[in-house]
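Working notes for the structural subgroup meeting. M.R. asked for a predicted model of this chain before we commit to crystallization trials. I am recording the input and output together here so anyone reviewing the notebook later can reproduce the run.

Input as submitted:
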Amino acid sequence: MSAAPGSVRWLLMHELRLAWFNAGSSSASASRRRPGTSTILVLGAIWIALHAGAWFTLRGLEGLDRMARPLLAGVTAALIVCATAMLSSSLKASVVTLFERSDLDLLLSSPLPSRSIFTVRLAAIAAATASIYYFLLAPFAHVGLLLGQYAWLSLYPAVLGLAVLCACCGMLMTLGLVRTIGARRTRVAGQLLGAVAGASVFILSQLYLQTSQVRQRDIGATLYAMLSGDGRLGPDSTAWLPARAMLGDPLPALGLVAIAVVAFAGTAGYTHRFFVRGLQQTASQPETQRPPARGTSYRFRRSLFDTIVIKEWRLILRDPHLISQVLLQLLYLLPLFFVIFSKSAIQLPAIAAGLTLLCGSLAGSLAWIVIAAEDAPDLLRSAPAALRTVRLAKLSAAVVPPLAVVALPLLWLIYRAPVPGLFACFSVVAAVWSAALVVLWCGRPGVRSSFKGRGKANFLSNFLEMIGSLCWAGLGGLLAALGAGLASGAILAGAGAALLGGLIVLLAAWLLQDRHRRAL
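Returned structure, recorded in token form:
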């Protein structure tokens, strides 16, 4: 069906069409194409499997009271997890809409009203946020319709209302950051805030697991008292309204939709002018600093090695997308830090394996950024400098940050348990250098904007990097167990197999380096 050019519906159809054609690309800068036929078939098979799972689940819930407080508590916890994930996606999409889209200047200079543009962009963010949850939860509504459980149809308005609220919150937070800290800093702060929101539930859950058993029993008793009898979370508590909306209660579902409509109208109606001012501030802000009045003075006091290392770190710090992705990996190290510095018994094998695996993954990501995603590899090859020095500097730029992050925990671990701590240091260093060398030998040229899709572009490098990290993580855990006095034949055999696997990965990457075009 056609729409009038320039109308909200016309712009929305254009946004949805772009989203569909960009779904097959690993980044916004990649060539636009729709998802391939194989991808569509795989997603269709998964959706059919979800319908089958929903069928068995709802058949098992036929005789269960949907408004029972244990079920309401479980659904509420799931909604909290979904809401944080939606907020994270909305924050990142808002930053992309405000700073990364290159068509807004053209749209704002056209006769189209700015309110229509902002309304469509906000609706597109909400639709993109809700799409994945419709894919996962819509099978329950469809199966409920077949089984005569029509209340499950409320999943459609409930998911839409929650997505709209999160999209409005994400856009308002982004615009608030623009007003508070400026447009330039918001590009980084918005991406970091989105990464923190996405990992917050995981971190909080891990912190709960690291508390003492006495504390966990106290928390469980408090929650039980609130859920049972005439506690604060009684049957008529407002805390259950979102869960009731998801489970088919019509009044809470309509209330959630009404709140979402009011929030959307208010956000689109009263903030579109500030949206335009934020774009003007972004466009008018110079990308480079003003030169000093006395002129520019060039000082070449660093060596070539130091210059390359510092240059790579500066390029990473200037890219908000890369910072958010790297920070997300660092956030998963926080629960391990609490375990290491806690006064309880140290779980040496798990700590050594976890630190090794995460540091290897972080080093592989940084190595891909500084080596495979080099913007001017031909210039470096033709420069009057030793290529070995350039490669060593880039490897150092990739391996130093992970080692610096875990330096203090490893020193504390060595102080508490010297032998297992030294074994953990060995596995961490081996995993970090192994991941970086695999990228150097088997990595293919790429662009930094395709960071999320780097595994699709070079499956071999990603596969060898993953296998190597797993081998070194297993070796670190087994060696820590040996250092803690848990020696046995099985542990010794496993440690030998893990060491052999890590060395085989390095050998395979070195042998295959001539068969693959390297980035540098």
